[in-house]
Amino acid sequence: MSRTVSRLLSLPLLAMLLAAAPAQADKYDKTIRLFQDAGESADFFKRSYAYAVFPTIGKAGIGIGGAHGEGRVYVGGKPTGKAKMTQLSIGWQLGAQGYSMIVFLKDRRAFEEFTSGSFEFGAQASAVAITAGAQASAGTSGGTASAGTDKRDTSTEGGYYKGMAPFVIIKGGLMYEASIGGARFSYRPNRR
């Protein structure tokens, strides 16, 4: 990779990592409430064994892109551990954005698969405005979502695919892409 390309990629990726930095302690509760109030995702809280919440995931790309965010995993509404999401993508993409994500885990098997690190997202395509947008995903993750910035303009649609149902709400930024990539999740249980 040339030095010019490397330098061009480093600025958006640095901005992405700073956007994903920890904020206030109630960021998880606020994100959970947002998904509880957003369309179809509210029902998943009642039907799921567990869920992973990522209050902010930063994403950026110019040809080659990446995303990163830290989250918390809940079973029965109680936190059981921490999770990280890291994504690498390649294809036509330009911009940066921040979004919140929740991954519902239907049963114990899905929870064990997710926490083992074998859960991945696949091909994706999205078009995002600065404060509201829409995103569709297809691949190993399944699921779709349309998103906004608050309760009145946020709705979600989706279903379980292999026991997992991911939803996103765009927080801001501008990102155009038609790329292929994979996201890996890692999990660390709480210390007892």
Radius of gyration, taken over Cα atoms and rounded to an integer in Å: 16 Å
The number of helical runs is 4
Shape: globular
Q: How many separate structural domains?
A: 1
The count of strands amounts to 7
Structural class: alpha+beta
Instruction: Estimate the mean pLDDT confidence.
Output: 73
Strand content: over 45%
As a percent range, the share of helical residues equals 10-25%
Low-confidence stretches: 5-9, 17-25, 123-157
Topology as H/E string?
A: HHHEEHEEEEE
Cα separation of the termini: 45 Å
* Major sheet attributes: 7 strands, antiparallel
Q: What would you say about this model in short?
A:
The chain has 192 residues and is of the alpha+beta class. It has helices at 3-19, 27-36, 41-47, 108-115; strands spanning 50-75, 78-105, 120-121, 124-128, 133-137, 144-147, 164-189.
Could you please describe the fold and organization of this structure?
By secondary structure, this protein is α+β, with helices and mostly antiparallel strands. The chain has one domain. It has four helices and seven strands. It has helices at residues 3-19, 27-36, 41-47, 108-115; strands spanning 50-75, 78-105, 120-121, 124-128, 133-137, 144-147, 164-189. Strands 1, 2, 3, 4, 5, 6 and 7 form a seven-stranded antiparallel β-sheet that branches. The protein is globular, with a radius of gyration of 16 Å. It starts with a helix and ends with a strand.
